[in-house]
Amino acid sequence: MEATKQDYFVPFETILRDYTGDTSQLIPLLQKLQEAYGYLPQDIIVRLSSHTGIKVPEILGVATFYSQFRLTPMGKHVIKLCHGTACHVNGADNIGAAICDELGIALDETTEDGLFTIETVACLGCCSLAPVMMVDGEVHGRLTQDKARKVIREIKKQEVSAQ
Amino acid sequence: MKVIVGLGSCGIAAGGMKVYDKLYELIENTPGMEVSLTSTGCMGMCFAEPLVEIQDDQGSAVYGLLDEKSTAEVFQAHIVQGKPLEKYIVKSETATCADDTFFDKQVRIVLARCGAIDPENLEDALAMDAYKGLEKALTMQPADVVNEVLQSGLKGRGGAGFPTGLKWKFAMNSPSDQKYMICNADEGDPGAFMDRSVLEGDPHSVLEGMIIGGYAIGASEGVIYARAEYPIAVKRLEIAIHQAEERGFLGKNILGSGFDFHIKVMQGAGAFVCGEETALMASVEGQRGMPRIRPPFPAEKGLFGKPSNINNVETLANIGWILRNGAKEFTKYGTEKSKGTKVFALAGKIKRGGLVEVPIGMTIREVIYDIGGGSSSGKPVKAVQLGGPSGGCIPESLFDTLIDYDTLSATGAIMGSGGMIVMDEDNCMVDIARYFLDFTQNESCGKCTFCRVGTKRMLEILTRITEGKGKEGDIEALEVLAEQVRKNSLCGLGQTAPNPVLTTLRYYRHEYEAHIKEQKCPSLQCRSLISYRIDPVLCTGCTICARNCPVHCISGEVRKTHVIDQDICTRCGTCKAVCRFGAVIVE
Amino acid sequence: MSTVHFTINGLQCETEKGTSVLQAALAHGIEIPNLCKDQRMEAFGACMLCRVEIDGARGNPLACATPVTEGMVIRSETDAVNESRRVCLELLLSEHTGDCVAPCTMTCPAHIDVHHYIEHIGNGEYEKALQLIKQQNPLPSVCGRVCTKPCEDECRRNLVDERVGINNLKRFASDYDRLHGPYIPEISSASGKKIAVIGAGPSGLSCAYYSAIFGHKVTVFEKHANPGGMLRYGIPSYRLPREILDFEVGIIEKMGVEFRYGVEFGKDIDYKKLKAMGYDAIFLGVGSQKGWDLGCEGEDRCSRIYTGVDFLERVEKYNDIDFTGLTVMVVGAGNTAIDAARTSVRLGAEHVQIIYRRGRAEMPAHPEEIHAAEQEGVEMVTLTNPKAVAMDGETIAVTLIDMALGEPDASGRCRPVPIEGSDHLCMADIVIAAIGQTQDLSFINDEFQLKTNRGTIVADSNTTQTNLPDVFAGGDAVTGPATAIQAIAAGAKGARSIDRFFNNQPLPKAEYDHVMGKKIQDVSPIYYEGEVKKEKQRPAELEPSVRIKGFSEVELTFTEEQAKAEALRCLKCGCGDALDCQLRKYSTKYDANQFAFEGEKHAKPLDTSHPVFVRDPKKCILCGTCVRVCRDIAGVNMIGFLYRGSGTETVPYLPGMMTGEKSCENCRLCVEACPTGALLFK
Question: Which subunits sit against A, judged by 3+ Cβ pairs under 8 A?
Fold first, then answer.
């Protein structure tokens, strides 16, 4: 157990190695930590506080202010449904309804098996291809409800065959 | 022969990587090909992505809407046999095609290099005059540089339209040992992607603008604050910074002038409000992005308490050109009060959506019809939304309005950052107002009473109206709230949040009244106020609708009339979309 | 140290350079409202309440953050500025969840400070409790027995288990005082003014009590031989023992109030005479003492038909009525009818019926009274009405007809409709018509032109003043038949009004009162989910078989243990910051209405985790002062903002919340700095 505990903080130590005491680096640090741990666990936040001297309330205040930061783990596959104006005007609501129905969860929720999280984002900047969604960093545009469902089913198939 | 594949975010999203890979494979496997295969950023013709430009001794031909199959065809015809394949051409110097006119009325100052260069290749940019403006600026006194920008009449392109030269002057005149030059690349307006395209397609233009600005105001540090949702832009900026440093355009003693300037990139973390100057600075300082009281203005007391100057990406992308060609050249474009060009991200129900750059002073009508090709849905254009959540809707009857900061303000809308969303009769204006207010409420930082609570109450009223629960007095309450929120909010987010409501009330009051008094949505969009039914005369019983219905509420036997169960129907519209007989009626 | 000159609201002023508009205005006696500017710290810019008009400025700048410059012209009280302030406050109020004043006090017509007297009882401070009660009600022992207790209907404990026995607690405190005191309030020095109170009923007695405290010389003129009005002549003694009533009247006498019995206004004295006698003001508390007749055919040819009030008055005055073996029919189902029925039982009646034209659910009498009557053997006959009466020898033959409930009438109750052909006869020895009362205003004439409306005296609802400036009126004479506590409240209001009238003082502005809901039905039980249920205390009662043998009190008073236990059930709904709250202060000043912009409110529960204070996010206005005080003044930085937008919260961090974190030092600065009741000491 000791070994695992040490391993757990290795990414943290690596990231904090370059910290020079400039507290304005809080946001980039949190971004790197989230990238390493998938989200911002409580113990990481506490450790960050003691390492930098930035009080926990302040760290939490920043972490809960910005949409990017998660204090709870996300699903393995994150679906970011664009809800920008162009997408809205071109039926993003219907796409949202379709993917929620497909996965059996509501927006901003994670499936019970921990595989999928659906988020809405304000705008992905691909307006000519509206409606758009980003899955695992890959953008899918000119969506129809059908197309959106197919993308999800593909991923589900891959997950099943990987098992 | 040069083959250039459009790999901006839109290009990639549309399948550009597959096209690129296909071409790579074909070129590799065909002996004797003297072809260079590169990529570029956004060419502006987003409606036709994926795009491939082929440059040979015949000139330039741009192919659009390619997939692997059509790419192979083009490869065979044009690349191997040298014969342009007209059926896929969207723009060409020699052949004629339907979409030719897209660029006719455009004047590409900011977007000059976008789509024409490989953004990760400094030589390409240098070949198109990158950093010539900087070279010129470094021979001038900082005050003269500021004056040049002032004379050009350039106004902030982020939306506020404040004269850039004046802003630089204030910062220049603030005495301090340390100053900051900040680029606001937190393009948060949903529906806007101008800045993204510039950052991805021509990052050096932004760097050049910043360095010139730093020199002019006396700053030695620059920060580019880019939003988290633009990873490619961030990557390209970092590459460009590295390249610029290697070449001596950045760092110590730039081009031997004795001027030191460093730029770092900081990524936003998902807060639209950080597009506001003081919130942006708070974020750079590692805090919650809550705006601060102004005065003092950033030019006096900004980042870390030092004088700072914040400019939008597009604004900075103009600077190099202005210094290189002179302020007077710049003033040749635009209107009396607003000079230069403006980039717009044209989207929505438009045939040719994409990135366009036009001289200020063109009419809305020209942009939408001459450049954009008019409505994409077959139904007439109803209105255009300008300026995102801070802007307003302009009805078709006012499309002869000139696109200029002042004339647009008179309509109740604003120039904004450049988002231009086209709508037709199927778009409900009350829903549009609700949509924007929902966005604003989500993004409100929560500090000041009027924005935090006022926009929430407005949203609640609008939501009720779209759900058919509007009541007498709702419009009046909206008007009171809109006025108070506009007058009293702490920052621009709150001050402009009521604009979509105010403009839609001004031009589409009858739609609000229909929702409230008659419980009807004239555009047949608000789900609680519409219902779908199947016309028994037209229905052939093909069962397509039943099979596609996501909630399985359509019943019927093969070749017999189908029926929608009104209690379960969610009004998603799928049945109407898939019915080939027009048998599904919305009312 | 340089001076700048400026103008504010037309006033030419000067101040030290660098002073904020807010500070400079204050120095010249002009208060610009603000909720987030703390003197010790820089301006923050959250509340937006301090915006003012400044010539040449863009928009309306924040007074807290704008330094005064030479020649500045400021306008801080224009209509536009005030409208913005009002909307700002209304937006804050629309999210605010709480009650400035507990609903029991808000509902009580006399605004007795229930929450705090119950707290005193809980602490064993019974005398303090009684004194607090008497600030608003001089007859608590009486009310402790006969009040209709509207306060209990709105008691929030109803949402947890059962309502707090407020009335029983009031009775306990007043009975305790009667046995261990009594408390006589301090009287101000003689003012030299004389007041004539007409009627020694609840409104008159109340007016006399408070007027005496002001130092005025009071004389009560009462037409009956004894004081009390309806309290004596309308409520039987088993409900209100005469000793109790006389005891409380006795206190008023001890305060120097003169009582003159057997003197009727309009006959023995009148307005002219009173003015000639030197009275500076007159309070009319003449009540509604005329009973309505049955109003059915044959009534005038019958004997032994009485109105309820006449019957009860007769029982009180003469101890000579014996109903042994008789059948009594009481028509009506209000408290007077029940009183008449239960009195008839005690007078030996063999069979007593209540005949009521509507249904059980529509009976206006208190359910407890109805229940008590049934326990004592009274028969309730509903959906029946008398159609005609005729004498049959010594008995009365009453033709009754069945009724059905039809459409609701103006009062909202269903109109009873006779069912044709359902006539049936019923014999009775005595018929008592207790179907309502009305006022006897025969003293009004050309020389005393008091304005009336539909048989009631017209008096201002805030001041009780009539059309004649020195004549005030309250109680049933103004409202029509109503409750004792309403009459008492009117009398108290009258006394305060008369005092202001004497001193030429205007009516003070009513303070803003925030409520969690207009009525208890509007309050979601979700706010009380965490409350532990506690059994409600019930006072002992006489057995029905014992009760009907005489006129002793049926219900007894709480014991001390019972009183303390019941006091602990109180949820202390009134906000602890009610006297200091800045939000309340400004809402009063700018006439804010909490219902102007209805919408979703804060619903987060109370946070009692801190050892020193309680945090109520439902009252937080997000001014950020606690965060900044902790960070900049205390230097501890243990309170932070969480989340964004309308979901933002300010949350303090405590030991153990996050391991290894140094925490709050209990300096209390945050609680002191909080402008509302969001942070209160435990």
Answer: B, C
Pair B413, B305 in one domain: no
Q: How far apart are CA C256 and CA C220, in angstroms?
A: 11
Q: What is the mean pLDDT of residues C293-321?
A: 88
With CA atoms as reference, report the closest residue to C71 among C57, C50, C52, C51.
Answer: C57
DSSP string, chain A: -HHHHHHHHHHHHHHHHT--S-GGGHHHHHHHHHHHHSS--HHHHHHHHHHH---HHHHHHHHHHSTT--SSPPPSEEEEEE--HHHHHTTHHHHHHHHHHHHT--TT-B-TTS-EEEEEES--S-GGG-S-EEETTEEE-S--HHHHHHHHHHHHHHHHHH-
Task: Give the integer Cα–Cα distance in Å for A162 and A159.
Answer: 5
Cβ of A64 within 8 Å of Cβ of C638? The answer is: no
At residue A2 the predicted structure's pLDDT band, cuts being 50, 70 and 90, is low
Give yes or no for A78 touching B (CB within 8 A). no
B213 and B315 belong to one structural domain: yes
- pLDDT tens digits, one per residue of B547-573: 888 778 899 888 889 999 998 888 888
**Do the beta carbons of residue C415 and residue C422 sit within 8 Å?**
no
Q: Which residue ranges make up each domain of chain A?
A: 2-65, 77-162
pLDDT band for C541, please (50, 70, 90 cuts). confident
Q: What pLDDT is attached to residue C446?
A: 86
Q: Examine domains C103-183+534-567 and C600-681 and report if their fold is the same.
A: no
Residue C411 pLDDT exceeds 90: no
- Cβ distance C644 to A45 less than 8 Å, yes or no, reads no
Residue among B429, B435, B443 with most chain A CBs within 10 A, to mutate: B435
Tell me the average pLDDT of chain C. 92
Q: Which CATH number fits domain C292-437: 3.40.395.10, 3.30.1490.20, 3.40.220.10, 3.50.50.60?
A: 3.50.50.60
Q: Which of B9, B267, B548 sits opposite A126 (nearest CB)?
A: B9
Do residues B5 and B16 touch, judged by C-beta distance below 8 A? yes
Chains that contact B by 3+ CB pairs under 8 Å?
A, C
Residue C655 has pLDDT above 60, yes or no: no
What's domain A77-162's architecture? 3-Layer(aba) Sandwich (3.40)
Residues B291 and B368 in one domain: no
Q: Which of B99, B132, B148 is the last residue of a domain?
A: B99
Per-residue pLDDT of B425-453, as tens digits, reads 999 999 999 999 999 999 999 999 999 99
Question: Mean pLDDT, to the nearest integer, of B9-27?
Answer: 88
Which chain A residues have a beta carbon less than 8 Å from that of C652? 57
Which residues in chain A (93-132) have CB-CB distances under 8 A to chain B? 94, 97-98, 101, 121-130, 132
- CATH number for the domain harbouring residue B308: 3.40.50.11540
**Angstrom distance (rounded) from CA A70 to CA A78:** 12
Cis omega (within 30 of 0) on the bond before C605? Answer: no
Question: Between residues 25 and 64 of chain C, which touch chain B (CB distance below 8 Å)?
Answer: 43-49, 51, 59-60, 62
Q: For C638, which residue in chain A has the nearest alpha carbon?
A: A57
> How does pLDDT run across B114-173, given as a tens digit for each residue?
988 999 999 999 999 999 999 999 999 999 999 999 999 999 999 889 999 999 999 999
Report CB contact under 8 Å: B441, C87. no
* pLDDT class of C660 with cuts at 50, 70, 90: very low
* Min Cα separation A161/chain C (Å): 40
What pLDDT digit, counting tens, does each position of B367-380 carry? 999 999 999 989 99
In words, the CATH class of domain C3-77 is: alpha beta
CB B160 within 8 A of CB B239: no
Residues B392 and B266 in one domain: no
Residues of C in contact with B450 (CB under 8 A): 48, 88, 91
Structural domain boundaries in chain C: 3-77, 103-183+534-567, 194-289+439-503, 292-437, 600-681
Mean pLDDT within C122-139: 97
